[in-house]
């Protein structure tokens, strides 16, 4: 059984606000409520190990995670990204030049360059010599099913008891994040509490008592599974299919959650 922290750090809100201020200077695709949630994960996830970020882009989430983790001595943050732009998304996506120099400038400007282990590599290559426990696994890389599934399969075996896994863009019409979240997490009794913050899907790794949360995961899985047929094979829904997709997406609870409420949720022992 996990022993979650009994209360939040008294200065957590100020620490996250400071990290938000720094992250606003970095170009990226995370909403502020998503960034704040990552700050909560960095500070409060009740597990030992590294914070692993797959997909750093220009460093927006890296700045949040590393700033908060460094303040509480809860690092390190391992940032994995080949920094080759959006080439993996195919020719129909507006392309981005290599982002490595911009990423390095972002973490240096935020003053957290010494708190980040930078791995300029594809996740499959970074995984070859990985042997450390993971307390937060943040997956925001290749959003195809093959890419997202591979990231999960390679790094999930290292999740520490009580760790949290989170996926970005789960509700943004990509196949990978929603399928992996539904098929490998919500349908597995190795995971406990689960939910959404905006387009982030998250769950806590509870290998010993995850079955106690089967009912709530099943209810969420039933709603999320309705989205999968609309995004299969990486085809974005259009026209009437897009309207239907948005309708089913609206049925998924995804409001921001306070740090206090999140801590209360993971402190539960059953549904």
Number of strands: 7
Indicate the proportion of strand residues: 15-25%
CATH class: Alpha Beta
Q: What name does CATH use for the topology?
A: Rossmann fold
Helices and strands, in N-to-C order?
HHEHEHEHEHEHEEHHHH
Radius of gyration: 18 Å
List strands and helices in order, with pairings.
Elements: H1 12-23, H2 32-44, E1 50-54, H3 60-71, E2 77-80, H4 100-109, E3 116-119, H5 123-126, E4 134-139, H6 145-155, E5 159-167, H7 175-186, E6 191-197, E7 200-205, H8 214-225, H9 228-231, H10 239-250, H11 259-266
Parallel strand pairs: 1-2, 1-4, 2-3, 4-5
Antiparallel strand pairs: 5-7, 6-7
Care to describe what's here?
The chain has helices at residues 12-23, 32-44, 60-71, 100-109, 123-126, 145-155, 175-186, 214-225, 228-231, 239-250, 259-266, and strands at residues 50-54, 77-80, 116-119, 134-139, 159-167, 191-197, 200-205. It is an alpha/beta fold and 271 residues long.
